[in-house]
User: Fold this.
Amino acid sequence: MSFLIWIILGIILLILFWVIGTYNSLVKLKKMIENAWSQIDVQLKRRHDLIPNLVNSVKGYMKFEQETLEKVLQARASAISSKDISKKIEAENQLTGALSKLLAVVENYPDLKANENVSSLMEELRKTEDKISYARQFYNDIVMKYNTKISVFPSNIIASMFKFKEAPFFKVEEAEKEVPNVDLSF
Assistant:
């Protein structure tokens, strides 16, 4: 009889260790997602800080493109004010599209392209966009691992018990995929 109790206790301990291990791995992945998002957020803040300088630099040259400039500033304001990650992702995608249009318009102004201040700001913006792209990729990789873990059996049992929810991917909008190439070389 005591042998059967030890077997039952052993099984209970194995299940308990499995639950603890699975829970801890889900928490670890969730914290990695938060860290990856904060890395994106740092680069987005940098981009948000660069935009007003770029807009102010090109404003005088682009008298007929005020609508484009206003859309960039509106998209920036929307991106800054978004708090929820899903809404922030959507707002940032809109900002990226508006910035791409602005950069395409700048190509039509040779004097503007030759301006050192504009050139410097555009180079900084390009570097920042590259960093955002890398940070998005890292974030999406972690989100994929996390979402997979909470979806597959048997860890999905623990995920549902402790109310782990899927994290949103930072997807590129279809319109953004079709943005024309902009040559930033001067």
Notes: The first helix runs from residue 2 to 59. The chain has a mean pLDDT of 84.
